[in-house]
Design a protein that fits this description.
single chain, 171 residues, alpha/beta, five-stranded parallel β-sheet, 8 helices, 5 strands, globular
Length: 171
């Protein structure tokens, strides 16, 4: 199957972009993030898309961005935190080398401060994050070949763990 050598999924703030860049660099591959693709195509931030057009519109843009990236990108790909909500996206991920990056709530608070810049966390961020994870964890697990915990690890340690668990060799 053609497509990305590695796809990273997980909650907002888990470090998909940071880890994705590191892994891509170590493998000598290009890095791509579907959230970045959406921002570039729309010419505005994701939080603005949520506010102006709603979550449903954003999810439609996200579905198309994931479909396009899975079909045309051969490096390391990071998906937005909610991309797995779409059954069609989960189906497209079958057969791809997907890693689920995890963290607990304390780590999420430490990393992101659960700031309101994240549109889904604007009201009661701790409770909302927990609820999102309860709903999404089974979906992340469904699409992933492996899970890598990021808690109390440096980005370099997480990148090494991803390479190890997926048995990928550095360039």
């Amino acid at each position: 199957m053609s497509g990305p050598r590695l796809v990273l999924v997980g909650p907002m703030g888990v470090g998909k972009s940071t880890i994705g860049h590191l892994v891509a660099e170590r493998l000598g591959l290009a890095y791509r993030d579907t959230d970045d693709d959406i921002v570039t195509a729309e010419g505005r931030e994701i939080s603005d898309i949520f506010v102006d057009d709603g979550e449903e519109h954003f999810r439609a843009l996200e579905r198309e961005a994931v479909r396009t990236a899975l079909a045309g990108h051969e490096g390391v790909l990071a998906l937005g935190g909610g991309a797995v909500l779409d059954a069609g996206t989960r189906e497209l991920l079958r057969g791809h080398p997907v890693v689920f990056l995890t963290m607990d709530i304390d780590e999420a608070v430490r990393r992101t401060g659960l700031a309101t810049a994240r549109p889904l966390l604007a009201v009661n961020p701790r409770r909302t994050w927990r609820e999102l994870m309860e709903a999404r964890r089974p979906l992340y697990t469904e699409v992933a070949r492996a899970t890598v915990a990021t808690d109390d690890r440096t980005p370099e340690e997480v990148a090494a763990a991803v390479l190890d668990v997926m048995e990928l060799k550095e360039a």
